[in-house]
């Protein structure tokens, strides 16, 4: 299970960010107006949402004894830029 490549976060977050404040620029992060069908998941329980499954997957992997959690970042941190 590879979260970074299999989870479409965009469909849940691109058109709204009521709490996504940028502390550096002192403003809300911009939203997009793409035509992708959005998933509204205010309580994190929508079955069709892909971003609310992380905790369940980590619990499952830990229970099977094969839990490995790797975070890879490039040396210059461009991934987060």
Would you kindly provide a written description of the structure presented here, covering whatever features stand out?
The chain has 81 residues and is mainly alpha-helical. 23% of the residues lie in helices and 5% in strands. It has helices at residues 3-6, 10-13, 54-64; strands spanning 21-22, 27-28. A two-stranded antiparallel sheet has the order 1-2. The longest helix is centred in the C-terminal third of the chain and has 11 residues, at 54-64. It is extended and about 45 Å long. The chain starts with a helix and ends in a 17-residue tail after the last helix. 1% of the residues are buried. The mean pLDDT is 76.
Report a brief summary of the structure.
This protein is mainly alpha-helical and 81 residues long.
List the defining traits of the structure above.
81 residues, mainly alpha, two-stranded antiparallel sheet, 3 helices, 2 strands, 23% helix
SS-based structural class?
Answer: mainly alpha
Tell me the total number of β-strands: 2
Radius of gyration: 16 Å
Point out poorly predicted stretches.
none
Task: Walk me through the topology.
Blueprint: H1 3-6, H2 10-13, E1 21-22, E2 27-28, H3 54-64
Antiparallel strand pairs: 1-2
């Amino acid at each position: 299970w590879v979260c970074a490549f299999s989870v479409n976060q965009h469909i849940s977050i691109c058109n709204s960010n009521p709490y996504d404040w940028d502390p550096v620029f002192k403003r809300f992060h911009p939203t997009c107006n793409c035509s992708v069908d959005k998933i509204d998941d205010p309580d994190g329980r929508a079955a069709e949402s892909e971003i609310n499954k992380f905790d369940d997957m980590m619990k499952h992997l830990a229970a099977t004894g094969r839990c490995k959690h790797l975070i890879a970042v490039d040396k210059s941190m461009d991934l987060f830029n």
